[in-house]
Amino acid sequence: MFKYSQEFLDQLILDIYNGIVTVENLPINLYQAISEYLISAFDKIEGKASQSLLSALSTNVHEFSAAKVYQQINEISLVKDSEAIKSFAAFKDEALQIYDKYNLNWLQTEYSTAIAQSQNAVRWEQIQDQKKTLPYLQYSAVLDSQTSEICAPLDGICLPVDDAFWATNAPENHWNCRCLLIQLDDLDAVVTSQEDASKADAETSELRQPMFANNVGMTGQIFPKDHPYFNTNGE
Which residues lie closer than 8 Å to 118 by C-beta, 6 or more apart? Predict the structure, then answer.
């Protein structure tokens, strides 16, 4: 549960309006609430994660949470400076809409991503442990009316575990991705040609957001530096 009370929220908005909370003086309590909520996603992991992996994932979530707080405080602060805002009441109305966008709408998707990607990271450790007897991976997309055009070209691709293809094409490949990697032995694997794999990679890369060209099991990053929150240059 995201633990940030109405009392804290009211005070936060007032402090931004009065210039107490700025991008140079970010609210620690909001950062703590976001990071604790996202890290609680690790409680949903099935299987055992190594301590080094959990440490890497936790560090990434803390960095992401700080970046998330920076972006929303920056956006709310810009509202305060707008010539269209003439009163605190008008500012508060705009500020609450921005707060809800970040911490109701987007945060729930980010929490779901933290669950899925931490599970994918643990799964990757298992894949590495088993690759001597199960040396191949096959991409499995859920094929139905909701199948993403990002994942459809990847469905059925089968390549060795250590093929570079998996560094950028392992799930998740988009928000709320439902795809899996199935590990196979030599008898069951029907290996995809490099030509077909490269074609599928190209099709997916054209559509996929850069932050999802990431194998979280390799990088330890649920939210890579390609995520827009990490862009503090206003570009």
Answer: 41, 42, 44, 45, 49, 57, 216, 222
C-alpha to C-alpha distance for 231 and 1, rounded to whole angstroms? 27
Give me 101's structure tokens.
């966008």
Q: How confident is the model at residue 89 (pLDDT cuts 50, 70, 90)?
A: very high
**Six-digit token string for 179:** 């795809």
Tally of CA atoms within 13 A in the half-sphere of 38 that contains its CB: 30
Cα–Cα distance, 180 to 109 (Å, whole number)? 19
The CA distance from 41 to 221, in Å, is 14
Q: pTM for this one? A: 0.93
Residue in the structure block whose two tokens are 């009065």: 18
Nearest to 72 by CA among 38, 39, 107: 107
Report residue 66 as tokens: 């700080």
| Tokens linked to 113 | 């991503």
Tens digit of each residue's pLDDT (9 = 90 or more) over 145-161: 989 999 999 999 999 99
What radius of gyration, in Å, describes the C-alpha atoms of the chain? 21
Determine contact, residues 158/189, Cβ cutoff 8 Å.
Answer: yes
